[in-house]
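Field guide to reading this record: the first block holds the primary sequence, the second block holds the structure written as discrete tokens, and the final block holds curator observations. Each block starts with its own label. This record concerns R-spondin-3, catalogued under organism Drymodes brunneopygia.

BLOCK 1 — SEQUENCE
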Amino acid sequence: VHPNVSQGCQGGCATCSDYNGCLSCKPRLFFVLERIGMKQIGVCLSSCPSGYYGTRYPDINKCAKCKADCDTCFTRNFCTKCKSGFYLYSGKCLEKCPDGLEANNHTMECTSIVHCETNEWSPWSPCMKKGKTCGFKRGNEVRVREIIQHPSARGNPCPATTESRKCIVQRKRCQKEGKGKKNREEKRKKSNKDESKETRQESKGRAARRQNREQRESNNKTQPKKRKAPNKEQDLAPVDTAH
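BLOCK 2 — STRUCTURE
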């Protein structure tokens, strides 16, 4: 054993030095050199720090540095996150995105340009003026459409979502608010009243007829029956003039 190698290592080191720190790591850990001032010491970590990527070898697992413009990387030539001022595209960090793409300052990536999309126009509204559909000759009618895809920063902006045009309607008077309803209610009440009146009259008529009928029947019961007068022609016997 080298005289500078310690036997009681800490922090995941398999072998270590009092001056240089870890010299090798325990299985599955990554060895990386950290600079402290003018000095570099070895440390053993479960994963590589930001700006490094891990490589595994039969004898040792190491953390290697990413490119200077790369914050995190999968390999040295494939970046997964760029440093400030650079945009990620296909594993590379670029200061300017290629043609047909735009820089997304939120994700710091080069993304496809998205244009605005809208649905179809709605039917034209009724001709109106000051919120009313009567009491005027010239008014306006409108139609609308909705945005279904908002554009990206360099995408085509959205067109107008509302259109208006002049319109002409046949002039007519406006019914006062509640007047139409009031008239319908009055007609209904009057109709019900007339029906009730007819019903009462019919009931009175039936009652009067029934009362007259009962009166006649009562009079017939109380008056004595008249005897029929004898038939004089039948009572007179024929006179035999032959004797």
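BLOCK 3 — OBSERVATIONS
The helical segments are 179-222, 232-235.
The chain is about 20% helix and 35% strand.
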